Amino acid sequence: MESTLEQHLDDTMKNPAVVGVLCTDEQGHNLGCRGSLSDDHGGVVSVLAKQAGALTKDPTDSPTVCLESESGNILVRSHGTITVAVHKIAS
Amino acid sequence: DPDERKPLIPHPNPVSKPPNGTDWITTSVPSARTDEQALLTSILTKTAQNIIDVSAADSVMMEQHEYMDKARQYSTKLAVLSNSLPQKKALALPSLTSQPHQVLASDLVPYSDVQQVSKIAAYAYSAISQIKVDAKEELVVQFAIP
After folding, report:
1. Best interface-test mutation with A: which of B101, B106, B117 has the largest number of A CBs within 10 A?
2. Which CATH class is domain A1-89?
């Protein structure tokens, strides 16, 4: 039953600008990852998204956290109980 | 210097200086005092002891030259002490770039990327929801004793 998620992660990596993708649960446990993002990043990713969400009182307003660097950006966004991080390089 | 440790705002005597804005409950015990009344009094007493009423305190009158003298005295003392105390090393944050202006003025994260990630997250969430417990048997069974 995890095949849909696995396929979705593979599809995401097909984009040439995407070099990493990571999916975690609310506690930062890794649900699936590819490329440059791995287990090690799960904790930080989920906490960043949670803290950013605390900045606004509106629960429907889900922010996207962007970590910018010269080598690319890591965008983190929560949806429901999961958090997704995508590492995109400058194309 | 005996004045060194004298508090700047002397603690107001709770008996002689009642806290601002509250009526002081008289210390004489009326003949019938309920537990509630005693509790209320103790709360008020504790609060009054912990509150320093700044407006009711006598202001410290010091002449200009006295003030300057004291300031000079303290800074000299500090200078002496800071030489003997070990310096707390401030943790320097790593410098990420030598071109901060360039980095800050560079293009923003493209909104299309933000939208893309939003979609990826939504799809991932719906994919996750397919992962659920597939209950095939009862968890609790009776042991059959033949």
Report:
1. B117
2. alpha beta
In chain A, domain spans: 1-89
- Cβ-Cβ contacts under 8 Å, A77 against chain B: 117-118, 120-121
Measured between alpha carbons, how far is B9 from B29 in angstroms, rounded to an integer? 32
B134 vs A contacts (CB less than 8 Å): 1
Chain A residue with CA closest to B115: the answer is A64
Which of B120, B125, B134 comes nearest A80 by C-beta? B125
Mean pLDDT of A5-31: 95
ipTM of the shown complex:
0.93
Round the average pLDDT of chain B to a whole number and report it: 79
Report the pLDDT value the prediction gives residue A91, as an integer from 0 to 100.
67
Q: Given this model, what pLDDT does residue B33 score?
A: 60
Q: How far is CA B112 from CA A10, A79, B119, B122, in A?
A: 20, 18, 11, 15
Tens-digit pLDDT profile for residues A19-61? 999 999 999 999 999 999 999 999 999 999 999 999 988 878 8
CA of B139 vs chain A CAs: smallest distance (Å): 21
Chain A hits for B112, Cβ within 8 Å: none
Percent of chain A with pLDDT over 70: 99
Token duo for residue A72: 């690319």
Distance CA B110, CA A72 (A): 12
Report the first-to-last Cα separation within chain B, whole angstroms.
94
